[in-house]
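Re-running the complex after MR caught last week's input typo. The corrected sequence lines follow. Everything else is unchanged.
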Amino acid sequence: MAGTEITYLEAIREAIDEEMARDPEVFLLGEDIGAYGGAFKVTDGMLAKYGEARVIDSPISEIAIVGAAAGAAHMGMRPVVEMQFIDFIANAYDMLTNYVATARYRAFLPCPMVVRGPSGGYVRGGPFHSQNPEAGFIHTPGLKVVYPSTAEDAKGLMKAAIRDDDCVLFFEHKYLYRRIKGVMPAGDHVVPIGKARTARVGTDVSIITYAATVHKALEAAEKLQAEDGLSVEVIDLRSLAPLDDEAIVATVRKTNRVLIVHEDTRTGGIAGELTARINETCFAHLDAPVLRVTAHDIPLPYAPALEDFVLPQVDDIVLAVRRLAAW
Amino acid sequence: MAGTEITYLEAIREAIDEEMARDPEVFLLGEDIGAYGGAFKVTDGMLAKYGEARVIDSPISEIAIVGAAAGAAHMGMRPVVEMQFIDFIANAYDMLTNYVATARYRAFLPCPMVVRGPSGGYVRGGPFHSQNPEAGFIHTPGLKVVYPSTAEDAKGLMKAAIRDDDCVLFFEHKYLYRRIKGVMPAGDHVVPIGKARTARVGTDVSIITYAATVHKALEAAEKLQAEDGLSVEVIDLRSLAPLDDEAIVATVRKTNRVLIVHEDTRTGGIAGELTARINETCFAHLDAPVLRVTAHDIPLPYAPALEDFVLPQVDDIVLAVRRLAAW
Amino acid sequence: MAARRRSPGPGGTATHLGEALPLERKLALYRWMRLTRTLEERLVALYRQTKVVGGLFRSLGQEADAVGSCFALESRDVMSPLIRNMGAMLVKGATPVEILKQYMAKADSPTRGRELNIHFGDIGPAGTTRGFLGQISPLGDMVPVMAGVAMSFKARGEDRVGLVYVGDGATSTGAFHEGINFAAVQRLPLVVIIENNGYAYSTPTSKQTAAAQFVDKAIGYGVPGEQADGNDVLAVYDVTKRAVDRARAGEGVTLIELMTYRRKGHAEHDNQSYVPAGEIERWAAENDPIDRYVRVLTEREKVPVATLAEIDAGVAAEVDEATEIAERSGTPAPLDALEGVYADPPRERPLWFREGADVSGLGQERPEGWGTWDAGKGGAR
Amino acid sequence: MAARRRSPGPGGTATHLGEALPLERKLALYRWMRLTRTLEERLVALYRQTKVVGGLFRSLGQEADAVGSCFALESRDVMSPLIRNMGAMLVKGATPVEILKQYMAKADSPTRGRELNIHFGDIGPAGTTRGFLGQISPLGDMVPVMAGVAMSFKARGEDRVGLVYVGDGATSTGAFHEGINFAAVQRLPLVVIIENNGYAYSTPTSKQTAAAQFVDKAIGYGVPGEQADGNDVLAVYDVTKRAVDRARAGEGVTLIELMTYRRKGHAEHDNQSYVPAGEIERWAAENDPIDRYVRVLTEREKVPVATLAEIDAGVAAEVDEATEIAERSGTPAPLDALEGVYADPPRERPLWFREGADVSGLGQERPEGWGTWDAGKGGAR
Ligand SMILES: Cc1ncc(C[n+]2csc(CCOP(=O)(O)OP(=O)(O)O)c2C)c(N)n1
Ligand SMILES: Cc1ncc(C[n+]2csc(CCOP(=O)(O)OP(=O)(O)O)c2C)c(N)n1
Ligand SMILES: [Mg+2]
Ligand SMILES: [Mg+2]
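Corrected-run output:
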């Protein structure tokens, strides 16, 4: 409902609900998504509203549910598949990268489907309930990947993902599920896939980031404004595949100093790809090297002190921006 | 045997043979590796020499053979697992990234094992027999990844991989299997993991690459020398995880112009990570942006004209180096 | 437990439904089997001329299994074949021209040169397509996908059935297991056929499973299981028709095991050194599905030999003509590679080093071991 | 097909081996079950005090299944538990102190705060370790891994057996299928126990499989299958001991289905709204494994009630003491996070923005919904 503030999680539910009401081909498939409403209750109430034929509790079979979604998608349906935790998407890696991603190209088969699930850390979830698996998928031509940081984008991107004619991996940050709230724009609120968002306007240094670290970056930006008088621009990518090259180039050419922040581990994370693109398109505009603040290259441990050490924190961003500004 | 020239493929077989003879804990596991000797005959003769207990033909079960290798490795054995084509490593993505990669860190369990298989394109293999899946794994802390380009390195790295106390993914380029030959150094020839190789010394531009494109880069370098008088240095990474940062920094600081070439698709490929590292460590030494020559972001088609279009070719490298030299 | 039947010889399956087929349809079965064999023989010739790009996969001796099973489907039904189910694809409407073009990677082949051999399909709403879904190489993956196709039939209340083939080897994959289990629980209209041809590449079934027979897996999924002599085309039809009828009646999944034998190697380059001496010859002599069916037609059905010869001639002419057509087609233009990774954008841009470049003469080396029939060289699908 | 037994009540399995156990060992079984329950109750208390980091998983009502099965192993054997097999871990030598420290993410916990709850192990050469292998979260993965452990026993001719637990839910995974099939073909000394507790998270077994019973899967893998009443500790011991003996004798894999019931939610936060009214209460009243075993001991074995009370008191004291010890331990130092991703290098370097930085006060916010017992909040393992 427009006007009231709802959480990031509720925004996702609202999007799914609206799309199911709009399009009878949309259906949900996953483990414990029906009567239970999902491990995080994202699909709460959907079974009651749409019935067993459109809200399907599956066996514990990530390969099967992704594969079955693809088959149904070929026939014109629009499956929305839940991974109970996104970490288990690894089990469907073959099905997603070999079958789903290539279907249109090798066989001219449409495969409109969404694979969504709770992702990310900062929640003491340990190594198998905290992952950010985007790097393994943005590498695969044929897949789209989104990872929203606000409630508004969570809703608008989910609607776009369900309507997209290709497979969209929709990562939901579980740390944001109930912490982040927003007022939904009125009407049919769809956020286009492939467009970044300027989360904060600034002129001195750009931070490019997405998902939970958008909020860390914003916190750091406030601190830098207050303590150093630095004007920091924060770009929220929202879509990781395709990337919004235009927005990236624009912010780099504006500030000439870029920090990339992601919660994912460092080596092979998307920051590398971003750095390559910035280097290719904006070399002459860089007054300092592109720097990265990321997780350490370590399986995420669960003890609070260890998790906090491994993951990027606000103070890391502050330090890195200061370094860039002083270059 | 030292002195005679053998192929890249034979070099791998020789390494496996020597390690099996040296260490009774080494054993082989895979599909059709016994009586048949493997789809490409890499393990030809091993069954006859070492018997069924050490050369185990498995069901078509990539999850099981990787998982079983891990269990045996915990108990002190040294499994060498064959993926019939490396493309099928996708089926074991969960087992490798979630179980194997984290075993030492989360449970202090050694997991010394090698997962090897024929990789790469240029062979009209189509989308599922031509893949270069390295990007999905260099991203995972806990795994090591090597991808040799010469027969000598194929042997020496295989021996190092089998002796390594962690899991090493050993990608073998099938285009090189029988095309590339070398004379093995005498004695116990082990090439350390994590060290790059200077495949060609030069002073004007550096090409950083690995696997089949090393040979494309060398061909391009000769052409550039002959036609443009350009002195091109070619660095063969050999190890993709860990990366040899020292060698990378050295060549960049020497030539100040870098081209990264890989056969893998562009977005999310390892070139991004390399660019980020070069940017972080050598920003002031760069006289031109780091450029990339890679495959297009397309599932690899199999018709020769299409495959050739999608994959990087010698002329692409020539063009890119010229662009860099003229920057 | 029933003993594993790995020796040739007609099985004992009843073939009431098959026997009841009108003669015209019985002759159609013959024609499809003959077409399969003749077309494959033509492909071998083209392969040896290095006109086939990549490997060549035969179904010699398995024609009854592919043809008889698919013959039990209606045109609105959807089937997903394996590499050795060219016969099933023909029955479902794939044409020799398509298959030949596809094997030769022609520009106007069904996948425009993007995918190999018989990896192509044609599915969509009933009535608009022929109803076969192209496989991908990773084995087992088509089982979940076909479960999804069947799920769409159920969701929409369509009177359609899905059928998916897996090899004895592919039963060991996680995808097979998850897919059939999912379909069973959801009571989807799906028939799963295990083609037990004795080998997975070089691996005999004894190294693939410890089960006495694959049909023993049915009870563990809570579905009916049936086994039939895969080299008896009427028995194959029979067992499949019953399963298809059950699926259509809302009774869910059936698991079928068809007992057959792979007389050729995994692909043409495979010299079958791992096969016990005499085994192939015995199956060829005693249990060739076409020979057996010829006897049924001529002896029991009293079909004149001349009728069959006429069919054979028609098939040969069709394959000749198809070859001619297929050979005339050109190879794809390099820039075609950029089309359709996504619906949006519809076309990738060439990378910067190719912008405006002449790409007509790139690469073009033909790798050794591919597209030739030298048995010593590597390469496998 | 046998009907699915989802109602409480003792099963009819023979318990000859269990009954023949000397009284001392029978009392040990009682002690392990009591210790399991008491320790879990203590964990609930600590969880409500927010001293447990992350979720809490109960095995209430399943103690006989975990304890009775693991009791059939020798100390040199290796077992891989699930989240509801704390009892099996205790039998195999895990200590309450370790478990408590682990749940509280202490610096000197078995995984030094790296992994959750009872995800820890101790395996290696016989005689040097206690022989249990910590699970990871992705379900089914431990089956192939334990096949590999068993493979090492076979390769070395060691007289050791492996045992791996899976839930009814985990049987649907590709990893389970590939792992048990691999072990069966290789005739590895492995016992696979399916704990059918009626639910996988909120999913009833009827949505997990269409099979009448999980033990029906055995024939499809070509291995013996046995089913037992999982709430009868002696019956559990019996069926497992037979399977372990077979494995030790070189007869390969056995698949066991233990029928039990999960009386608590998937984890403490789960309010079990999806469970039919009265079901939990009926199992608690009629088929509590400890109550049942107390009756066996006191009525059939004539064990004085005081003896059991004494054991209970010992257990309570042990848990009290363990809690005190565990609570005294500190939390890990941040820089510990850098140790041992690889053997070489043995330690990662802190990233540049942390070099020399004071990392003692990073983050530290406790996310809502974790480590509290508010049932409305999200979070699950
Ligand atoms: C997941 C996976 N692993 C390995 C392969 C390589 N491979 C291709 S065909 C084949 C054997 C298939 O045997 P089977 O399933 O019995 O089918 P058949 O060839 O006998 O018809 C193998 C191992 C593959 N395609 N997919
Ligand atoms: C591959 C995978 N998918 C999903 C999950 C999430 N998950 C954790 S426990 C669980 C239910 C497990 O049920 P069951 O196997 O019956 O074990 P039980 O909890 O009943 O002992 C699920 C779905 C997981 N851990 N792994
Ligand atoms: Mg086969
Ligand atoms: Mg359960």
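None of the earlier attempt is carried over here. Chain C touches chain B through 62 residues (CB under 8 Å). Chain C is about 40% helix and 10% strand.
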